[in-house]
Amino acid sequence: MATKITAAMVKQLREMTDSPMMECKKALVEADGDIEKAVDVLRTMGMAKAVKRAGRDTNEGCVAAYVSEDGKTGALLELTCETDFVSSNPKFEGFAADVAKVVAENDPADLEALKACPMNGGTVDSELTEMIHVIGENMKINRFARITSEGTLASYIHLGAHLGDIVNFKFAKPETAQNEDFKSFAHDVAMQVAASAPVSARRDDVPQEIIEHEKSIYTAQAKDSGRPEKFWDGIVQGRLKKFYKENVLTEQEFIKNPETTISQLADEVSKKADDKIEIVNFVRFNFGE
Q1: Are 153 and 70 contacting, i.e. CB atoms less than 8 angstroms apart?
Q2: Where is this region: Involved in Mg(2+) ion dislocation from EF-Tu (predicted)?
Q3: From 13-17, 28-32, 73-77, the region with the lowest mean pLDDT
């Protein structure tokens, strides 16, 4: 009587070998449920390197960005590998960018859904396994984020590809996306997001739990200041205002000209483009965070 192949057995083999789920199930069926034999089956199916390297640490890697030609859809993706030598390999970085494109075009719900997405006649999972064969190191898709825009998106990948972001801009006139002043502004803002790590694009978008956490710290500091209680709220509000200035993108000082805020810069570019340009939101990945 054939052994019943359970989801738990498939999951165990998948974790051991980093092989595609369906291939794991086929291997278990062929091995009549014997995990060790199933590993050998996978090796004979051309996944030997993936099996051998599946347990190795992947502490290096890169962040890749993709933005569609119309600027409406984009994605960030973090792909890991074993060594910094491979992380800077153009083939590795190119694969990460290709998978980011799959994310943008397919909008997968989670990592498992992404691995099942079609890619180059196979799936993302099968292509990942092939990359492991070709390059000879274990690799993992660590995380991804997708972003859409009513206006346009601008991406920035910092030198070394360990830090990247995509910023979402809104405006009224479609031609603004092609305006040279706007393009320069969008690039500078994307670079600002990478360099200054803001919490949110706008003050209203700062998560309430972060605000409450900061206020609790400032309140404790006010109580310890020795100032009368009637001054405490003013102290808290003053320090909260400083927090916004340092952590909200539109209120930050422009890194190229600290005398101007990002919001003021947006107003200047809006006048030049005869449009109202707004920064809506962004996604930012710092490798390993």
Answers
A1: no
A2: 83-86
A3: 13-17
